[in-house]
Amino acid sequence: MFRIHDAGVDPDAPGGPLPPVGALVSLNREQLWVGSLQEHVPVKVILEEWGGAPTACGDGWDEEAKGHLYLRGLLSVDMGSAGPAVAGVRLAGGVGDYSVRVYARNREQVFELYHELFDRYGDPLGDEFQRARMDLESLEQYLIQLWRQS
Questions:
Q1: CA-CA distance, 111 to 116, in Å (whole number)?
Q2: Model pTM score
Q3: What does DSSP assign to residue 42?
Q4: Angle, CA 102 vertex, CA 7 and CA 110 arms, to 5°
Q5: Of the ranges 9-18, 20-29, 123-132, which one carries the lowest mean pLDDT score?
Q6: I need a surface site. Which of 112, 127, 137, 144 has the fewest CB within 10 A?
Q7: Which CATH code is given to the segment(s) 2-148?
Q8: CA-CA distances (angstroms) from residue 51 to 12, 40, 80, 145?
């Protein structure tokens, strides 16, 4: 899982959204949690800020979620125990309410393929297992689009 939030918000503070167990997202006014179905294979995240609402791009994506966030002009992406991936990126739209659209692809596929590696190779510390796990990297992908509400 990873969280997108205002840089001034402590993502672990009380009152945050619940983890999106099994769901694509969980959110409150100041942060968005995006849920992967696994935690062992790196994923690819594309974050876009738009000047207005982009055209929906549902083709090629398995899942979609929408929501709203209040951001104070700086955006962070937190990866939980792995730490911040992005800290304090300045938003062109500045302070205000933002619409957000999240697309995902290959969440279930990577989950299933990773678990099949145990049947195929057995030892998760072995070289064959690790090479096969690396082949799965970035197969699970997310597109997050933000734009300032008018």
A1: 9
A2: 0.91
A3: -
A4: 105
A5: 9-18
A6: 127
A7: 2.60.34.30
A8: 30, 35, 29, 11
Q: What is the pLDDT of residue 107?
A: 94
Question: Alpha-carbon distance 146 to 48, whole Å?
Answer: 6
Interval 60-101: pLDDT, tens? 899 999 999 999 989 999 887 777 888 889 999 999 999 999
Domain ranges of the chain: 2-148
E-assigned strands of the chain? Answer: 2-6, 25-27, 31-34, 44-50, 63-78, 84-105, 141-148
Residues of the chain with pLDDT > 70, as a percent, come to 99
**DSSP H helical segments within the chain, as ranges?**
107-121, 127-135
58 pLDDT higher than 80: no
DSSP string, 48-60: EEESSPPPP--TT
Lookup result for tokens 């997050």: 144
The answer to whether residues 75 and 32 touch, using CB atoms and an 8 Å cutoff, is no
